[in-house]
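#struct-help
A.M.: can someone run this one for me? Single chain, 246 residues.
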Amino acid sequence: MSERVAFVTGGAGGIGSAICRALAGAGHRVAVADLSAGEAQAVASPLGGLGVALDVTDPASVEAAVSRTTEALGPIDICVNCAGWDRLRPLLETDEEFLEKVLAVNLAGPIRVTRAVLGGMVDRGWGRLVSIASDAGRVGSSLESIYSGAKGGLIAFTKTVAREAARSGVTANSVCPGPTGTALLAGVAGGDPRGEKIVGSLAKAVPMGRIGRPEDIAPAVAFLASEEAGYITGQTLSVSGGLTMA
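D.P.: on it. Structure tokens below:
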């Protein structure tokens, strides 16, 4: 496998850091991009990678992170949009501030990052875009109406990019984790008993009898980012222990 430069947003989080380790293990140079530059560097250092401060809701921050990565490691060949945020709330208990934050992080952010890296991939005739969406975006999820809508939009966006870039050697695919044991999942309930009840029941609903681990998600991303996956584009892959099928 050729060594490539990989840029992972939300790279200091549970799923993001597992993806960074998997990509580094595949021989790639990894830029770990996250809100906290210190946390990003803590993940990047053992991998021989680069920690980069990134706020996906800020266009200037996106441009700066992409520029720093390119200067330090080279042009970005692999981009994984993993940054995400949510809290469990019924739609009627959401407000404009909540709506804007969920859409800004989970939909507008990946669009912004993809736009910043796609042109270079097209010019060079090779690229891998992987969106970390969610099964909530495929089948819906109680108390996650806005998040589900954002992730559904991300899936549709990724398919459209796949169509537009297919003849330029660039693939674009979505990976949809099911419930996965991360700090984000713990925080999603936000102390709401309704959310805590739903989170507590997830393991029972998964046919494999447990919620996912970050290490379950990362290999799917590493494969879609590989040379061997060059004829796979516009696809949506669930990694959910069978919670959702087809």
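A.M.: thanks! DSSP finds nine helices and seven strands in the chain.
D.P.: also worth noting: The chain has a mean pLDDT of 93.
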